């Protein structure tokens, strides 16, 4: 069974990441499956069986850099969100919720079987990150309450593909930081996770009629962009220790015009509380392993803090396929990499996926 989503349909999902939170008491984190975030020995054994593999059983490194700790916190924060997402998706299919019903029983059985493996693997990722934090005397990251802007199986798979794209870009930043900090054992382990995430991403893309391998060199990112993007799925006030993560949260960047595989002006909206109309802003795009692309940002309207602006999406000259991370920056650069863009970002990330 394959689900064919247009770029416009996918972008409607991405643009809705800032949808109003569902009504939930902002008091405690989500109840996750299989005893997470702290499964007992029996629960862990079942998770490993479902995941077709085990947690690494080697000793933790004796020391870790401060940036390494920051990486582990972000990984745990992300993986707990993914566990909640795939758990809810499996429940919707299992319970035959409207929009998640299958016409073919064999397709339904196969899809559920594969999703349960993915869920268990993401559970192990979350457990591993929090166990590593605990081994270094750092408090584990607790789950939040989550909200997912999807209405059916098609939009759920499109969203899974988009956030997995962000994960694949973010883990590049993580593994480089581990290497710079001489956290070499962790760098090798994260490299193995990148391969696993890429395998499931290929399936998400095939389910949408896309070529399984997205790009020759996947789009890179910065962990601050991932931290901001994940919060789009979080009910505010429900993360017990999010303030201990220590990463930046940017203003939300909304993509109003659905992008296509051609150069055209796109319209965006974002909040600029500075009210500094005389200071120019730029739209900066991160795509593949290329230097960030900077385009002038023309303000169309300003109502209070809400700004509507447009900028060229220069697809034709740059083969901007796959994931593009769009950000509003205070500087026109030039930027050497995604980390440099993050330091000058006002609003973002806006997530664009073409082809």
From TrEMBL:
- What's the source species' lineage? Eukaryota, Fungi, Dikarya, Ascomycota, Pezizomycotina
Q: Which organism is it from?
A: Penicillium atrosanguineum
Q: Alphabetically list the UniProt keywords.
A: Signal
Q: Which domain of life is it from?
A: Eukaryota
Q: Among its keywords, does the record have Signal?
A: yes
**Protein name in the entry:** Late sexual development protein
Q: Which residues form the signal peptide?
A: 1-19
């Amino acid at each position: 069974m394959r689900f064919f989503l247009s770029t416009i349909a996918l972008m409607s999902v991405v643009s809705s990441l800032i949808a109003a939170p569902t009504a939930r008491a902002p008091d405690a984190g989500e109840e996750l499956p299989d005893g997470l975030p702290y499964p007992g020995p029996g629960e862990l054994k079942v998770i490993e069986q479902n995941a077709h593999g085990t947690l690494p059983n080697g000793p933790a490194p004796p020391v870790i850099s401060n940036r390494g700790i920051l990486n582990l916190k972000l990984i745990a924060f992300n993986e707990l969100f993914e566990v909640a997402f795939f758990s809810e998706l499996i429940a919707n299919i299992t319970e035959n919720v409207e929009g998640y019903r299958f016409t073919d029983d064999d397709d339904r059985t196969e899809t559920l079987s594969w999703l349960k493996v993915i869920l268990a693997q993401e559970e192990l990722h979350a457990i591993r990150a929090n166990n590593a934090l605990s081994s270094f005397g750092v408090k584990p990251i607790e789950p939040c309450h989550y909200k997912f802007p999807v209405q059916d199986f098609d939009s759920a798979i499109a969203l899974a593909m988009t956030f997995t794209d962000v994960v694949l870009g973010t883990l590049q930043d993580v593994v480089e930081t581990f290497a710079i900090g001489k956290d070499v054992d962790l760098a090798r382990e994260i490299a193995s996770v990148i391969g696993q995430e890429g395998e499931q991403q290929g399936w998400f893309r095939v389910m949408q009629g896309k070529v399984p391998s997205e790009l020759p060199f996947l789009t890179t990112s910065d962990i601050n962009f991932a931290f901001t993007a994940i919060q789009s799925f979080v009910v505010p006030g429900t993360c017990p220790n999010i303030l201990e993560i220590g990463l930046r949260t940017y203003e939300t960047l909304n993509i109003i015009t659905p992008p296509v595989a051609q150069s055209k002006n796109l319209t965006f909206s974002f909040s600029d509380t500075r009210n500094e109309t005389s200071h120019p802003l730029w739209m900066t795009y991160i795509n593949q392993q290329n230097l960030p692309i900077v385009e002038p940002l023309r303000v169309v309207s300003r109502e209070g803090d809400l700004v509507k602006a447009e900028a060229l999406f220069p697809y034709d000259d740059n083969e901007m396929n796959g994931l593009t991370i769009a950000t509003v920056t205070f500087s026109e650069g030039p930027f050497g990499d995604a980390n440099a863009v993050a330091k000058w970002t006002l609003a973002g990330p806006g997530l664009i996926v073409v082809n």
